[in-house]
Amino acid sequence: MYTQALDIPQQNADAKPLRAVENAAYQAEFDAKVDAGGFIEAKDWMPEAYRKTLIRQISQHAHSEIVGMLPEGNWISRAPSLKRKAILLAKVQDEGGHGLYLYAAAETLGVSRDELMDALHSRKAKYSSIFNYPTLNWADVGVIGWLVDGAAIMNQIPLCKCSYGPYARAMIRVCKEESFHQRQGYDLLLTMMRGTPEQQEMVQDAVNRWWWPSIMMFGPHDKDSVHTDSARWGIKRISNDDLRQKFVDATVKQAEVLGVTLPDPELKWNEERGHYDFGAIDWEEFWNVVNGHGQCNVDRLAERVQAWEEGAWVREAALAHAEKQAARENAGRAAA
Amino acid sequence: MERKEWPLWEVFVRSRNGLDHKHCGSVHAPDAKLALQVARDVYTRRQEGVSIWVVKADNIVASDPDAKPELFDPAEDKIYRHPTFYQLPEEVGHM
Ligand SMILES: [Fe+2]
Ligand SMILES: [Fe+2]
């Protein structure tokens, strides 16, 4: 809802200063609302920079959900049992749903779905770099659920209380579904760890490859972070480093129960801090992948664009059919 | 060919009988029939609903957020419209 399509009846133009213009009174009202932990709704006045930041963040988030279907989708036809196939199908379908909730939330800010799609397909918009790593064996599906969805949950829970109403509501919906994603992944890994030594090795191999990219998902260190306005506006309520620490702390025990080693020799409990210390993150790799040089950047986007282009005739035909039906109905009504 | 988006529909779901339909998001679809189908797939994958309404977004008329004071403030000082405004003797009991 709350989209640019919801036209507001034209009011007496002289009664109020133009809403589009940056205006001190509106700004003060906005600041007070955000500072009090209140919500901004789609038709409320908001600073242009706030709108732009939200469009960027929500759409990147939506793109990540949609592109995120690809690495796991790769394994749907190769799942080892009907049960696992049904679970994976449901999980991947959820990710598609998450993308759609979020695109709808972004559209309330006055950007069209086509524009958002264009931005993704022309590489103007980014998506989470985690999806540019390949899924090499079946254990990758489990590790993605456990670590990648796990990290996403850490990131997403605070967003349920972010200052923009439509985004917050979409995130509540998303978070309700994410727990299933993480648990099915962990369950899959538990099953493999009870299997043959080869299966156990597959799990360890997948953990070795996904651990560092997973903790990179929280983004650059706070001291190197560029989007500081997000905190002031109540969009980002917990910092990258705090979220990362929370994730590491939660994951160590889970790895232990599973019986795998996290590939970081510096990972150890720090009594004084009350947290786990961990080794230095390879930010060069992170930026390399963000900037398009990961193993799968080219493939992922090519697959996205192909799916979009090959579906064009369906979208056009459905619209032509709808228009024809509507015209026929109108003609029928006129004749009656 | 000129590109044209599928129109936007607002989706309302009744989670179970006895409750109102509640707005839960929006979908793009070429017509009402497909809008219902898409809404089902997007918003009710876990039995979140027993009934769905879809309404073309263009057909919704919304109040002006700038008119909030004119529309809603007049009710602010009419506290006598609430039961708690009236102090009754305790012996009366629950009323
Ligand atoms: Fe998701
Ligand atoms: Fe997920």
Automatic annotation (TrEMBL), chain B:
Pfam families: PaaB (PF06243). This is Ring-1,2-phenylacetyl-CoA epoxidase subunit PaaB.
